[in-house]
Amino acid sequence: MMKFFQVKKWFAILTLVFTALFAAGTAMAETSPYILMQQASDKLFSDIQTNQNQIKKNPNYLRTIVRNDLLPYVQVNYAGSLVLGSHFKSTTPEQREKFFKAFGDFIEQAYAQILTAYSNQQIQIEPEKALGDKNLVNIRVNIIQVNGAAPIKLDFKWRKNSKTGEWQAYDMVAEGVSMVVTKQQEWSGILRQHGIDALTAQVQKSAAQPVTLSK
Length: 215
Known about the structure:
This protein is an alpha+beta fold. The chain has 8 helices and 5 strands, in the order H-H-H-H-H-H-E-E-E-E-E-H-H.
């Protein structure tokens, strides 16, 4: 079993990949999630490379890249509702809206910070499979290690919006550990003891942290 600090280290690496794969520039509702993943990888890293000078001057510019390239293609509200879990029903629509906004800002900040460690990782996406009438799909991705170690195997969860037909990402699983479930467990104590308003305030505080370049 992975120790807690090892899990945190894994997610620091894997969140970078999660950001890369779900940052599609343009997408049609019927586009396959496999295609979106490939487009995502190309688009995000191209933007980072093109704007290296600006990023060095102002690391927070990475937040702009994440906001433009990533957030429109992540189901922030759906992921946020999963994080709230059983506490979701006890919240008001206004409280949920504030939490989802804070959660989206948190994702933006967290992924922008992780992207400062980008070092040309190679990503292999599994061959496209027939989707049929599926609304949920897991896509396996291998992260090729530069040191010759065995590839890191990840599973990304995509969900098709029943109203718009759009495919969007909402979770990532590594070594059996779900990012959504991890946040749900991490924040459940605050929800249980202090409620969603207190959690929203904490998430807002985390989201407001400036992006700093990795040393």
